[in-house]
Amino acid sequence: MIDKPLKSWDTRVSISKSQEDIRNLLARFGAKKVSFEDDFESGSQMLRFEYPLKDDLIVPVHFSIAIKGIFDWLDENGRQSWNNEYLEKQAKKVSWRHIFDWVKANINLVEYGLIPFENIFLSYFSHVLPDGTYKSLGETILPQLYSGEIFNKILPKNTKGTSGAKRKN
Q1: Does 115 map to a domain?
Q2: Is residue 133 part of a domain?
Q3: Which domain holds residue 20?
Q4: Is 165 among the domain residues?
Q5: What Cα–Cα distance (Å) separates residue 128 from each residue in 32, 134, 145?
Q6: What pTM was estimated for this model as a whole?
């Protein structure tokens, strides 16, 4: 088994402080709206913001954050005295701290011209479905990517007549 250390596993930074840090970071970066949500049915957390891609185009960005992997790690590697309620709260604290670190690192890449905003956040661009739920571009495209269909539809064939994706035999 590979040892998987977890950064900030014992953080004391509250969920609300991490969310405040994310909100302030995104506001400084130019986001027009920022919101955080809990989906009590699925147990996931959500981060949404709107970003002005161009003067006349504002894109909604949506992250659905599943804490299960963090919860499982903490359950296996945390303190023996932690009960499930504490584990869940700590998993949320760790998850939001990781989201803050990820957003900060990626915004720095954009701010210093290393990678365009669209290249980093494209799969998280989202839209609202008729039932009021959100679906990201990544959620829409990934099934077509996995099937190879997307390469046949939108990417040109190379000179050998094949697309860029190859399946392992």
Answers
A1: yes
A2: no
A3: 15-127
A4: no
A5: 17, 5, 22
A6: 0.81
Contact, 89 vs 63, CB < 8 A? no
Strand 57-65 to 33-39 pairing: unpaired
User: Which H or E run includes 57?
Assistant: strand 57-65
* pLDDT per residue as tens digits for the range 132-164: 878 888 888 888 888 888 777 776 666 555 555
How many structural domains are present in the chain? 1
- pLDDT of 81-120, one tens digit each? 888 899 999 999 999 999 999 999 999 999 999 999 999 9
DSSP the chain: ------TTTT----HHHHHHHHHHHHHHHT-SEEEEEEETTTTEEEEEEEEEEETTEEEEEEEEE--HHHHHHHHHHS-TT--HHHHHHHHHHHHHHHHHHHHHHHHHHHHTTSS-HHHHHGGGBEEE-TTS-EEEHHHHHHHHHHHTHHHHHHSPP-TTS--S-----
**What's the rounded Cα separation, in Å, for the pair 108 and 151?**
31
18 within 8 A of 97, measured Cβ to Cβ:
yes
Q: Indicate whether 155 belongs to any domain.
A: no
The residue with tokens 């701290």 is 97
